[in-house]
Amino acid sequence: MAGLVEIVIDDKEIKRLERQLSAFPKAMPGVMSRSINKTTTSARVVSANQINAKTGIKKTVIKKGLPIFKATLARWVGRIHFSGRRIPVINLEARQTNKGVTYRSTETKGRVLIKSAFKARMPLPSGFRKPGHLGVFVRKVQGGKFKEYDGRLPIGEQRGPSLKEIFVNAPAIVAAVTRKAFGTLEIEITRQVNLIFKR
Q1: Which residue range is the domain that position 136 belongs to?
Q2: In terms of domains, do 131 and 145 share one?
């Protein structure tokens, strides 16, 4: 399953709207694009809310990984893309413990331990005023595997699943987003058409 939600209006509905707006032929592209874009924005909010409820990831973090591609007057399709980039563990309610770092599982209500991991803010090069990148790290060994901190080896940031993985593996979220999209699209089309007749 692709990591995206596509908002389109089927051919049957397009023909119905063309008949309904026959007296306003130039209004059709605007009605279509505005309805789809409002629906796309609404579906993105629902997607973020659903993923937040399941994983605890902050909505601001989720929305950064849900870019939308809007419909235009000539192209009546809206899309929400679910990023395939893996989410840093620091965004999964990471907590430092004596044994390492624990984080909230995106699949269960439990927590996962990364042994010997540590939370740290990586310094930026001199001249940067912003604070460095905060993350969860462990020390790397040759071959890409990890072991306990020894003070010398390079570090590797720990990441969880991507938004795409979370979405495609959660049928309930897919169903909720799809249901909301269909309902919103119907409402928006009706609203946009009514605005045309009120002019």
Answers
A1: 87-160
A2: yes
Phi and psi angles of residue 78, each rounded to the nearest 5 degrees, phi first = -120, 145
Average pLDDT, the chain: 88
Q: What is the mean pLDDT of residues 108-130?
A: 80
Specify the pLDDT at position 25. Answer: 86
CA separation for the pair 63, 52 (Å, rounded): 10
Question: What does the alpha-carbon distance between residue 41 and residue 51 come to, in Å, rounded to a whole number?
Answer: 16
- Strands lying side by side in the sheet with 68-69: 4-7, 78-81, 68-69
Q: Closest Cα to residue 80, out of 91, 69, 88? A: 69
Q: Sort residue 160 into left (φ over 0), alpha (ψ -120 to 50) or beta.
A: beta
What is the β-pairing status of strands 86-88 and 159-162? Answer: antiparallel
For 23, which DSSP code?
A: T
